[in-house]
Write a structure and sequence with these properties.
binds guanosine-5'-monophosphate, single chain, HIT family, subunit A, binds zinc ion, alpha+beta, five-stranded antiparallel β-sheet
Length: 131
């Protein structure tokens, strides 16, 4: 499991690229990932440690450490991440059976990578409340 180098998960600010960030390295093609979608704003790839038959991470290209660091200018991008989740749920075959979208934010939520990511989980029945 990778942390974003020395960048605290809830570090202030954050624009562009963080050279110590594992997800920025995936965006840059510096480390491999099973990419399922790429566009100007975002990319999506399979989680390295899937928690469900479908477990995809949808991330902005830009390094934003956490959803709590979102600014007004990020509204379109965050909406786009959710739109992609909707589209990928269809293409990955879980739209009809159902799926869960998760954004972990900060310590109590167990956010482990400090680059915003939306988890798309599906392909099995899930419990509630989450652990
Ligand atoms: P978080 O706990 O921060 O919400 O989720 C981080 C997710 O990133 C975890 O599900 C973890 O398995 C995944 N992850 C961490 N490092 C890598 C990596 O190098 N490649 C991929 N594909 N997923 C990763
Ligand atoms: Zn990053």
């Amino acid at each position: 499991m990778s942390k974003c180098g020395d960048t605290p998960v809830l570090a202030k600010g954050g624009g562009g690229v963080n050279k110590d960030c594992i997800f920025c390295k995936i965006v840059a093609g510096e480390i491999p990932a099973r990419i399922v979608h790429e566009d100007e704003l975002a990319i999506a790839f399979h989680d390295i440690q899937p928690q469900a038959p479908v477990h995809v991470l949808i991330i902005p290209r830009r390094h934003l450490p956490a959803i709590s660091q979102m600014e007004p200018a990020d509204r379109e991008m965050v909406g786009h991440l959710h739109w992609l989740a909707r589209e990928l749920a269809v293409s990955l075959g879980v739209a009809e059976t159902g799926y869960r979208l998760v954004i972990n934010n900060g310590r109590d939520a167990n956010q482990t990578v400090g680059h915003l990511h939306l988890h798309l989980l599906g392909g099995r029945a899930m419990g509630w409340p989450p652990g």
